[in-house]
Automatic annotation (TrEMBL):
<dbReference type="InterPro" id="IPR038404">
    <property type="entry name" value="TRAP_DctP_sf"/>
</dbReference>
<dbReference type="InterPro" id="IPR004682">
    <property type="entry name" value="TRAP_DctP"/>
</dbReference>
<dbReference type="GO" id="GO:0055085">
    <property type="term" value="P:transmembrane transport"/>
</dbReference>
<feature type="signal peptide">
    <location>
        <begin position="1"/>
        <end position="23"/>
    </location>
</feature>
<dbReference type="InterPro" id="IPR018389">
    <property type="entry name" value="DctP_fam"/>
</dbReference>
<dbReference type="Pfam" id="PF03480">
    <property type="entry name" value="DctP"/>
</dbReference>
<protein>
    <submittedName>
        <fullName>TRAP dicarboxylate transporter</fullName>
    </submittedName>
</protein>
<keyword id="KW-0732">Signal</keyword>
<dbReference type="GO" id="GO:0030288">
    <property type="term" value="C:outer membrane-bounded periplasmic space"/>
</dbReference>
<dbReference type="GO" id="GO:0030246">
    <property type="term" value="F:carbohydrate binding"/>
</dbReference>
Length: 327
């Protein structure tokens, strides 16, 4: 009951807010981002906001609320669904809980490399995947780069799959990601990114998995110094808009927003590439134990994910095949 009243209040408050915003000459919209200001995705968000403002000659303003000011990613998606938040930049993983087809984009060892992933995202599959989030009351605007995710932990060096056995590993709030950890023989612990540092510090979890920039930016390297470069997933980032918000805008303004988002992608990719390199160096300089696996061991990691392909292959067989066959 209490939850109902809180929700009702949030809805009324949000509607009041957006009406106020729409009533004024300038349309002010809010974008949620969990990373800090200097993170490559936030840089992409700010570029998107700049382009919207420029293209609308200052009529539309996108305010970027970074550093998880508007909540964790799962909560933010729900708020975008009912229009309390206008845009969010999020990882594909939490959105896949609402738009299942996205699972096909985040299967382990799916892409040969970053170029392969971008050929998929920039092609017809990427377009249809952006459209697929409409089922979840969202509008998919663009993709951003998040490189590859690897395991890190506070306990020991992971040199092979056997070392993962029984480890408690934090994952994103996604069923596929939980099953992936189980398939690796470890025990998954889903939680928002903001809770991971203290969970590592207090030993609630043994490890987590992420790319270099998140490992450094969220200071996880301070409390989990063993990083193994196994690159098990490449999970793209996505910017989504609220259907509620977009439906209040003219078709021209909707188009302008879509265009601005598309144009922000190459900017973000550039920022990403630079940051990935410097953050790998930062981890080294901070004295982390970094384990680079040889191709044979990587092949074992990949082979271990076969059961996941058999399970998810049923629903996404065609899509996965098309992705694999993309040049
Ligand atoms: C980072 C993504 C962020 C996710 C986070 C996580 O940029 O959107 O929330 O991983 O693991 O790489 O939750």
């Amino acid at each position: 009951m209490k939850r109902f009243f809180v929700m009702a209040f949030v809805v009324v408050f949000a509607l009041t807010l957006s009406f106020t915003a729409f009533a004024a000459d300038q349309i002010v919209l809010r974008l949620a981002e969990i990373h800090p200001a200097d993170y490559p995705t936030t840089q992409g968000d700010l570029e998107f906001a700049r382009l919207v403002e420029e293209k609308s000659q200052g009529r539309i303003k996108v305010e970027v609320y970074y550093g998880a000011q508007l909540g964790d990613e799962k909560t933010v998606v729900e708020q975008v669904q009912f229009g309390a938040i206008d845009f969010a930049r999020i990882s594909v993983s939490p959105v896949s809980e609402f738009a299942k087809d996205l699972n096909a984009l985040q299967m382990p060892y799916l892409y040969r490399d970053g170029a392969h992933m971008w050929n998929v995202l920039n092609g017809p599959i990427g377009e249809s995947m952006l459209k697929s989030v409409e089922k979840a009351k969202l509008i998919g605007l663009n993709w951003y780069d998040a490189g590859a995710r690897s395991f890190y932990n506070s306990k020991k060096e992971i040199k092979g799959i056997a070392d993962l056995k029984g480890m408690k590993i934090r994952v994103q709030q996604s069923k596929l990601m939980m099953e992936m950890i189980e398939t690796f023989g470890a025990s998954p612990s889903p939680m928002p990114m903001g809770d991971v540092y203290s969970a590592l510090q207090t030993g609630v979890i043994d490890g987590a998995e992420n790319n270099w920039p998140s490992y450094i930016s969220a200071s996880h390297f301070e409390v989990a110094k063993f990083y193994t470069v196994d690159r098990h997933t490449m999970v793209p980032e996505i910017t989504v808009a609220s259907q509620v918000t977009m439906s209040k805008l003219s078709p021209e303004d909707q188009e302008l927003i879509k265009q601005a988002a598309k144009e922000a992608t190459p900017f973000q990719i550039e920022k990403w590439a630079a940051r990935e390199k410097t953050d790998e160096e930062k981890a080294k300089a901070a004295g982390c134990t970094i384990t680079y696996l040889d191709p044979a061991t990587i092949a074992e990691f990949q082979k271990a994910m076969q059961p996941l392909y058999e399970k998810y292959g049923k629903d996404y067989a065609d899509l996965i095949k098309q992705i694999q066959e993309t040049k």
